[in-house]
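Hi everyone,

Forwarding the result from last night's run.
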Amino acid sequence: MARVNRSRKDQLENTLLHVQCRFDGTPLSCVGDLLVHVISEVQRSHEAGGSSADNAARISTYAIKVLELLPKSFGKRFAFDAQLIRVLADEYSQGGAKLSGMLVPKPSQSWGHQTVSMPSTDGTTTYAVDLIHLPGEDNVEDITLLDYPFICHELGHHILFKDGDGFIALFSKELESVLSGLQRRTLGIRGFARQIAEATTNQIRQYWAPTPDQFNWAHEIAVDVIAIWLSGPAYLAAIQDVMEDDNLNPFQLGKSHPTYETRGRALIEASECLGWAYYTGPFRTLLSRWEATPPSGDRTNLHVACADPQLINAAVSAAIKTCQALSLPSCTAARVAAVENALREGLEIELGTDLLIAAWLQYCQSSEADYHAWEIAAIARILAEITE
């Protein structure tokens, strides 16, 4: 056997052993089985002369990259998070949305959603694992139920990846209308002023236009709206905690996320549309404080132009219509009242959206010490049910 072919064979065998050791007997054994199947097929084809050495190397290298992206530990927090995400996905799949059965939690530095495509032998048939990144380590102590409505936000990304064409069509129509209006108003402008106006219009498009990777303002506002639709004031409280950070720059422009000032306006608009206006007081206070900030390098005319109210309202409206079209279960005042009654009667709260609502209610109605005691007991009870 030529040295290069022998090297490729050894690489495949090492990768195969690595996969088997990593996933055998773990909650991701089905992912391991898929990788083993693909690597074994390539290995057999390579040995029979049907697969090139380069293809064997490609599959092996990609499989190693997949391993690096997937969770490396499967402790009690993984068990809790995985079961919660599974229950939430089932809740949200009762209508037109059909969430993946391969939603996997991964402890990370920050919240996020990431699709990891599995390697395939033919290059076309692919399976994917959708990672939900959660801050912290794989330790039970890092479970913070008050922050967990952000799971609804990340699942919103997943929903729009699978069923977001309607949202894109609705919002893109409004975006083009706004941009066309801006272009008409610049027709009589000449010279440097026209260049500035055209650059501003292009920047608005760059920030707001929906993109396949969802790194844009429209999608980010949409998943905030979906999170409010799914978990109501529990999500508003979670994102309020983020926005009240004294180190936060509310006017920081970037492509992947709208400014927090813009995001705050969208949260207020969505809350008013969905019946949660009562809980928008803290956001209004923040906006008033930020508006009183003297103009600076971060708060410019470009910022004002990009925070167009018509675009904010269009993104909120398109997201709500998408929730309605997909029949996603909405968090209503009646549901919150039912959870509150269950807490008052000392009933156990089931894993799912009700647990997120219950944590928010418990925190609002208890001392900090009592809340933490309740949270620890609730997590322990659920873990005992999951692992028994």
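The two ends are 52 Å apart (CA to CA).

Cheers,
N.
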